[in-house]
Amino acid sequence: MKLKHFTFLILLLCFFFSCQKNEKSKATIQQDLLIDLSKLNNEIVQFQKLVNNNSSQKEIVEQFKKSRLVYKKVEWAIEYFVPETARFMNGPALDEMELEENRSFEPHGFQVIEEMIYPEYNSESKEDLIRELNIFQANIKQLKSTFEVITVSDDYVLDAVQQNVFRVIALGITGFDSPILQSSIPEAGESLISIPESLSKINSNNKSLAELKNLTEKAQKYCAANNNFNAFNRAVFISEYLNPISKKLKAFQKEENIKNVKKNSPLKPTIETLFDKDAFDVNAFVLSKEYNFTKEKAILGEKLFYDKSLSKNNDRSCATCHNPEKAFTDGLKTNVSLTGINLPRNTPTLTYASLQNAQFWDMRQLDLEKQSVDVIQNKDEMHGSMENIHAKIQLDKEYIDLFKKAYPGNSKPEAWQIQNAIASYVRSLNSFDSRFDEYMRGKKNALNNEEIEGMNLFMGKAKCATCHFTPLFNGTVPPSYSKTEHEVIGTPNEPSGKSISPDKGRYIYNQMPQLVGAFKTPTVRNAAVTAPYMHNGVFKTLEEVVSFYNKGGGIGLGYEVENQTLPFDKLNLTVKEEQSLVAFMKTLTDKKYQ
């Protein structure tokens, strides 16, 4: 009996010290974050002194770079735990819009400051610059208050660190948050420091931690030795440094028996890298659980997709405009209405459409269910009636059997299930099996040298990946992939480029001046087989598209586009670089369309 009591006491003490150790590690991580924020605040204070003392532009720019490097070390936590504040510390220098309330907020933070001090710094901007620095300091103070009270548990730390690796891949090395100075490469190396430092607080003796430290040090050295933004080899950096780091983080998690964080995220918690074939979960974009994807729903949805009885005159199905042989496009500049009149917009691909939280070029619908109803009931496209379709289906034995398999427990088909089934079929159209995907999963001969050069241009000098984010190559913003962006690029109305497109895009539904001519950023996946391009189908080839961007979009062509979000400076791509860029985009074609 005494032995049992003694054993119990030992177990109790072990449990106590284990908990104490865990609480201590959590506190240490928070203390480190607070120390790093104090260091960042000190750099901003020094920045303010230089501005107040009318120091040279060179000194101000160097202090700016130094401040950003300190920020990068703690960015993993700020972005993960306090994303609302992060947006106003290192977000794009574009207005933040709340469309539901029809209002916008001016941007703040590093990217706004960057535009003030580079390529020229005018002392007349001194007051505005000081104002921005004061706002930045206020945000640091807010962060400190937050990190003093929140619980930073091991599972959240690991998730935040992993997400930061994905951020480096998709944003950090593309110039997304350093668009003018292009200081992204040394910053990417700095942001990786947090990985071994943070995880050492969980278990400093872990075997994978030692390997992680070695991998991150090598990655930092690679950034230091290859810090030229345009020349940086992103293909090598991702495949040989960041992907191995990502895999080793998953190994660390398993060894420490750290649970996955429960959250509604498009990125599955089980993935080892951002480029895993099943990395993305389409259910993250559905309305609620009953709308979740199943194979049975997709089978039913496929039959509905090809059923012409969904249209008023039984002569047009979804597949009429979304041809599977053309990656679910139609190959036309714009299709025609039921009365033979040209429709105003190009038919977009449905492949990867399920990995966005906005549908149509103007983003007027938030999900695929509403998108299907919009098209079916549109008098110019199918002019069908959901009420009539529902009635027909209830009299069709084959459909009734399929509905029972797709929605077990329901006595008869319901109207919402028709929409959900079609949407489920669209959700099945994501293959992730292009040659690019094969390369990122270790097949080094999947891409040739020209295509690798094109990838580096896409994610670097050409700035494509600052809007078409890796690996979806659409406007769904990493690393949370929860928001889909629009852009204003100043698309011409005809190939000759004499006038701008009169289509006002998203402004039609949300009348804010920033949205005039704004359109959803589509995926570049399968772009090689989905010509013509742009919302109006104005460009017939990828070469024409690249040339348009190389000139600086609408403003580069001489149009007045006051709200253009696309950088309007020339990219200065050579003919060879343009060709490499096109060659890379062709590697994004799924196997079934090759």
UniProtKB/TrEMBL annotation:
GO terms for cellular component: cell envelope. It is found in: Cell envelope. One of its GO terms (molecular function) is cytochrome-c peroxidase activity. It holds the Pfam family CCP_MauG. Residues 1-21 form the signal peptide. InterPro entries: Cyt_c-like_dom (IPR009056), Cyt_c-like_dom_sf (IPR036909), Cytochrome_c_Peroxidase/MauG (IPR051395), Di-haem_cyt_c_peroxidsae (IPR004852), Imelysin_sf (IPR038352). Residues 484-503 are annotated as: Disordered. Its EC number is 1.11.1.5. Residues 296-430, 449-589 form the Cytochrome c domain. SUPFAM superfamilies: Cytochrome c. Keywords: Heme, Iron, Metal-binding, Oxidoreductase, Peroxidase, Signal. This is Cytochrome-c peroxidase. It comes from Flavobacterium johnsoniae (strain ATCC 17061 / DSM 2064 / JCM 8514 / BCRC 14874 / CCUG 350202 / NBRC 14942 / NCIMB 11054 / UW101). The lineage of its organism: Bacteria, Pseudomonadati, Bacteroidota, Flavobacteriia, Flavobacteriales.
